[in-house]
Amino acid sequence: DADVTQTPRNRITKTGKRIMLECSQTKGHDRMYWYRQDPGLGLRLIYYSFDVKDINKGEISDGYSVSRQAQAKFSLSLESAIPNQTALYFCATSGARGYDTQYFGPGTRLTVL
Amino acid sequence: GESVGLHLPTLSVQEGDNSIINCAYSNSASDYFIWYKQESGKGPQFIIDIRSNMDKRQGQRVTVLLNKTVKHLSLQIAATQPGDSAVYFCAEKSGNQGGKLIFGQGTELSVKP
User: Fold this and answer.
1) Please, which residues bridge with residue B35 across strands?
2) B64 neighbors B33 (Cβ within 8 angstroms)
3) Residue A63 near chain B (CB below 8 Å)
4) Between B9, B44, B100, which is nearest A48 by CB?
5) d(CA A79, CA A102)
6) Strands, E, within chain B: which ranges?
7) Who is most buried in A1, A32, A59, B9, counting CB within 10 A?
8) What whole-number distance in Å separates Cα of residue A1 and Cα of residue A59?
9) Using CB atoms, which residue from A1, A43, A99 is nearest to B103?
10) pLDDT per residue over A81-100, tens digit each?
11) pLDDT band at B96, cuts 50/70/90?
């Protein structure tokens, strides 16, 4: 969905490096999410934010941190990347109602050597 | 604990046939379910959703069925086309989980010409 953009689309880095993945949205949504996808697995929630001042851990937050710089921007950081963080990372956004659909960005493929 | 899973990891159908993709969930409190389609190299794309107060919902060529008694969800695709080839994920949401989505593993649908 072009309304949700992620940068970079691909990244190769080395163990111990700090990495930041960025997400921007033009949908005007309050809620933003970061997911991780590994081969053969579904998406797992890393962090989510219901508004600029609200940050919550998901099921696999260890080793990650996030920053909600504005309503439209939500970045994910790996403070010290490790090989088992090699995965596809997706950002998503949704409205604030309980039944609002989550819209996903195109993903970032991260490889940690 | 709660989980969402798919019965079959792969499904191969002939072009023009109907496809049925199944999903089981275990959280009785889940009240909203979504099917996503993920094509290679792209983020998940919303297909159709259903709330727990419904047992059937139809879209364009797709139908979602919800059986709360056995905690089962299915996606039916009519007249399957090559463009339907993708991985399909079911996801559930429950109010007592802060509106977070929980994804199943995914089923890869392959359409044979």
Assistant:
1) B48, B90
2) yes
3) no
4) B100
5) 27
6) 4-5, 10-14, 19-25, 30-38, 45-51, 56-58, 62-67, 72-77, 86-94, 101-103, 107-112
7) A32
8) 25
9) A43
10) 999 999 999 999 998 776 77
11) low
Categorize the per-residue pLDDT at A107 as very low, low, confident or very high, splitting at 50, 70 and 90: very high
Token pair for A103: 């819209």
Distance from CA of B85 to the nearest CA of A (A): 16
Write the DSSP symbol of residue B81. Answer: -
Res. B100: pLDDT tops 90: no
Contact A4 B43 (CB under 8 A): yes
| A12-33 confidence digits (pLDDT tens) | 999 999 999 999 999 999 999 9
Token pair belonging to A106? 């195109």
Kind of pairing between the strands at A87-94 and A19-25: unpaired
A4·B93 Cβ contact <8 A: no
Q: What is the per-residue pLDDT for B50?
A: 95
pLDDT at B98: 61
**Considering only CB atoms, which chain B residues are within 8 Å of A105?**
43
Contact B105 A40 (CB under 8 A): yes
Tokens describing residue B21: 């993709």
